[in-house]
Amino acid sequence: MLPDIGEGIVECEIVEWHVAQGDEISEDQRLVDVMTDKAMVEITAPEDGVVAELYVAKGEMAKVHAPLFAYQVAGAAAGETPAVEEASPPTPTPKSDSPVHKAASEGGKGPYGRIPASPAVRRLIREHQLRLEDIPGSGRQGRVLKEDVLNFLDGARHSGAACAADSGSDSGVESAGAGSPAGTDATARDEGEVRVEPLRGVRAAMARQMVAAASSVPHFQYGEEIDVTDLLALRGRLKPQAEARDVKLTLMPFFIKALALAIDEHPLVNARLNDEATEIHYPPHCNVGMAVDGKAGLMVPNIKGCERLSLLEIAAEVQRLTEAAREGRVTASDLKGGTISISNIGALGGTYAAPIINIPESAIVAIGKTQWLPRFDEAGQVVRRGIMTVTWAGDHRLLDGGTIARFCNAWKGYLEDPESMLLHLS
C-alpha cells in the first residue's frame, strides 16, 4: 500500500517507476518516486523479492493506503497468486504467511539525528567493517541504501556515478511536465492544438499558497540599495577555508546571519498574526526560508534557529537544502516552521522584484543581482562599487513603513560592514 506520508496528504502522483513487473528487487532498493504537494518522496523495497504487479502507472494519482505494487518474497514457492488486499491503514500486525505482499517502504523514516538505514544495510556495513556515517546516503532524509554501500566499496565506480548524477541535476532544474513526451508536444504544435496538463504536486500547492497570500494579506513594498563591496571581499577571503570543509560559501549565508541579527533588534518583523488577526505571536527562533526554483516547482525550505548557528553551519544548511529542493526531495520538516523568507531572484539575473509573502509569515525580501556601478566616495571621487538592490514586502496589518525601514537599515549595516557581525557572535 502507499503509506501515509503525513501533512494531510491523501494522494500523490507517480513520477517514475524504477522497476517493472518481473524484476528482482533487494531490500532498500529505490522502486518509485512519487510527488506530493510538498515534495518528491522516494519509496524503497521493504525486503528482497520479485515485482509481481504495478497497480498505478506513471503520471497517474495514487491514493494513500491504496495498493501501489505487489511483490513475491525471495525464496517463496513459484506460481502462487498474489492476494489482493483491501486499501486500509497499515497496522502493526504480524506479516502474513502469503509469499506476496502489497508494499510500500517507510521512505526513510527515522529519528532525527540518526542516519536512517535498514537492518540489512547495517549488517552489510558491519560485515565490511565500515562506518555508517562515512557512506553518503542517496535515499530520503539521507537514508543509506544497499546500493550506496556497494558503490562505496567500489570507489572508482561510485565517483563516476556521482559525477554523472551531478551534471544531470544541473541541467535538469527545469524539466517538462510528467506524462508529456516530446513527440506528443511536437504533434500538438503541428496540429495547432493547445497542450493541457494537470496542475499537480508542488506547483498546485504554490498556486493555492500565492492566491491565499495575495488575497488575504495587504502587501506593501520597501526598496533599498546595499553596497556589498566589502562583503564580496570578505567572502573571497573565507571561501577557501569553507571549501576545505566541503562547504560552498555563497553570499546567502551572510544575508541569513545578518537577517537573524537584525531580527534580534526588531523582533516584530519575525512575528505573525493569528488567524483572527487579534494576537501577535513571536516565535522563539529565527527560521529563514529560501525560495528555490527546483524541478518540482518553487519550494521554500527553511533553516532553523539561524540566530544560534555559525556562518559555516548556515552555509552547510544552505547547500543541503538547495540541493534537496532542486531535486524535489525536501523533507516536510524542512518546509515547516519558517518565520521570514528570502528570494534570491538576482541569481537568475533579476534586478528588482515584488515578492509575495509566504503566509503566515509577515515579511519577505527579494534580492537582486549585484552590479558594479560608479559611486562617490567620501572625498567626492568616483569609485567602482558592488551595488545590490533589495525589495521587501511586508504584511501591512502588522508592519508599517517605519518598522521595515529601521529593520532594513540594521540588516544593511551588517552587510555593508560585515566584520561588525563578529561583535554579536557568541
- As a whole number of angstroms, the C-alpha radius of gyration is 25 Å
Number of strands: 18
Distance linking N and C termini: 49 Å
Overall geometric form? globular
The chain-level mean pLDDT equals 81
Structural class: alpha+beta
The secondary-structure element order is EEEEEEEEHHHHHEHHEEEEEEHHEEEH
Total helix count? 10
Give a short account of the largest sheet.
6 strands, mixed
Topology record:
Blueprint: E1 11-17, E2 24-25, E3 30-35, E4 40-44, E5 49-54, E6 61-63, E7 69-73, E8 100-102, H1 119-127, H2 146-153, H3 155-171, H4 182-190, H5 201-216, E9 219-227, H6 229-243, H7 252-265, E10 272-273, E11 280-281, E12 288-290, E13 292-294, E14 297-299, E15 302-303, H8 311-326, H9 332-335, E16 340-343, E17 363-376, E18 382-395, H10 401-416
Helix pairs in contact: 7-8, 7-10
Please provide a written account of the structure.
The protein has 426 residues and is α+β, with helices and mostly antiparallel strands. Helix content is 29%, strand content 22%. It is built from ten helices and 18 strands. It has helices spanning 119-127, 146-153, 155-171, 182-190, 201-216, 229-243, 252-265, 311-326, 332-335, 401-416; strands spanning 11-17, 24-25, 30-35, 40-44, 49-54, 61-63, 69-73, 100-102, 219-227, 272-273, 280-281, 288-290, 292-294, 297-299, 302-303, 340-343, 363-376, 382-395. A six-stranded mixed sheet has the order 9-18-17-16-12-15, covered by helices on one side. It has a four-stranded antiparallel sheet with strand order 4-3-1-6, with no helix packed on it. The protein has a four-stranded antiparallel sheet with strand order 2-5-7-8, with no helix packed on it. β3 (30-35) and β4 (40-44) form a beta hairpin. The radius of gyration is 25 Å and the shape is globular. Residues 82-113 and 156-181 have low confidence and may be disordered.
